[in-house]
Write a structure and sequence with these properties.
The chain is mostly beta strands. Among the domains are: about 5-30 and about 40-140, Sandwich (Immunoglobulin-like); about 345-555. The chain is built from two helices and 42 strands. The longest helix is centred in the middle third of the chain and has 6 residues, at about 240-245. It starts with 5 loop residues before the first strand and ends in a 17-residue tail after the last strand.
Length: about 575
Amino acid sequence: MKRPVLVLVALVPLVLLASLLGFTAALALTAPAGQAAGGTPLGTAFTYQGELADSNGSVNDTCDLQFSLWDDPSAGGQLGSTQTVASVTVADGRFTVQVNDANQFGNNAFLGEARWLQIAVRCPAGSGGYTTLSPRQELTGAPNAHFAARAAVAPWGGLVGVPAGFADGIDNDTTYAAGVGLTLSGGQFSITLAYRLPQGCGNGQIPEWNTTTWACADDNGSQYANVVVVAKSGGDFTTIQDALDSISDAGEDNPYLVWVAPGVYTETVIMEPYVDVAGAGEELTRITQTGFATSVDATIEAAANSALRSLTVENSGGAAYAIAIYINSADNFRTQHVTTRVWGATNSNRAITVSGNGMFTRLDDVTVEVEALSTTGSNYGISQNTLITGRNELLINDVTIVVSATTTTGGVYGLHNTAATGLTAILTATNTLISVHNNSTGLTVGVMASGAGTPITLSGGLVEVGSGSNVYGLYANAGGAVTATGLTVVSSGTGAYGLSSATASVIHLDSSKITGSPNAISIGGTAANETRIGASLVDGAVSIAGAGTVTCIASYDENYQNAGGFTACP
């Protein structure tokens, strides 16, 4: 019986009719290398038989056919590429072709989803364009082909060719070995007792390895073997000093941590060597005290080989001196994530003071706040003094210093470095932000190196100073030296000032920006004071008094011009 024909929907003179007489599809996987296939494996091709008719009846001609595979009967997306079968003999309208013989439809063409075959034809072969037949032909499976769909859920019992070692379903011919921390008994692995985590740790405890076994221990969040907890309630001690006084065996091989819970602790803290003090965070843990009569007392007095971290240190003054941290002959003292705040002294406010001899001190991520309301002496953000013997070295990174004063007869300094004659005080600062303002007549200085042997090296950062009548961004005095790279200096007075009548003072600026009004750079005194500027912006005048010299190389003004030439100052 003749099948119903499919009408071509196309506005062309020749109307083609096609009917699906039938097709067979055979899909197979090629046997893996080295495995017997039992015969030639099936390829990807399947046979398609069709019938073409035009308005005159069955076609007798040689035609070109195109086949493409789709995932929808009318729209959707094409899978793989289009196959062209040229010069197909059509007799009495009938033809037979091999479709997908070179896997044109791709490896994912037939995975169980519905598919439709689209056919285009041109007769005679090689004549003009193709006419697409409509509708697309749905590809349906032969009844026995449905058996393949059950392969994914086939039971073990339905498999053939199972290796002998698996045929009985028992894995009894494989050799296993237990590694470190494991035991093997009767084919069952288990963790040895020493390696098992304890199951009954108390509240706030965690399992810790003690080089022999796992045991419950306090969760102190640190690597310290000795931890003392200070808290207003529930700790080992209620004051920090009591906790420090309880420690008598701290040493290089037996360091301690005094951990201070959140709260305000009003006390003077004298630290101990090899004992670190850490809070719960800046502004969470606050150590505060009122002022002192002398400049050698402070809210916290540092100790050698110790550290201060994650807290705030304050001194509210009310006496001659307000000092937050005093580091005196305390070698290898370190601070990190610390805020210092001082105010209210009648003589001098000093956030951090470094003194003594033969010391290395490091300050990382420290905030310094100084407010001098009415003082008779000088006020400092961070100051280092080598006044006894030897050499000191101070290293600061990512430090912010803010100093302000209203009525003070002394000077106001952000970063101050000084040393007695013949001694050395080295100060190195990276990414430092300094802001100093003074509404009185005293000196207002961002960075000062005073005395021979007081080199200050600045890398990156900002120095901003203003107000007052004696304002200096950088100040090298009496043989001091300041070297800066990548630094911005903004001053309402002089940007950089070198002064000395004895040992020459030195200021070197490279790849920096310096602004001052009226003078960006000034030199005074009778010594051969020296200022050198390289590849930097100089916004302001250059003033030379005395025997000093100013040298500029490749520098420029605020308009990025230098009419004086490559070796002249703007």
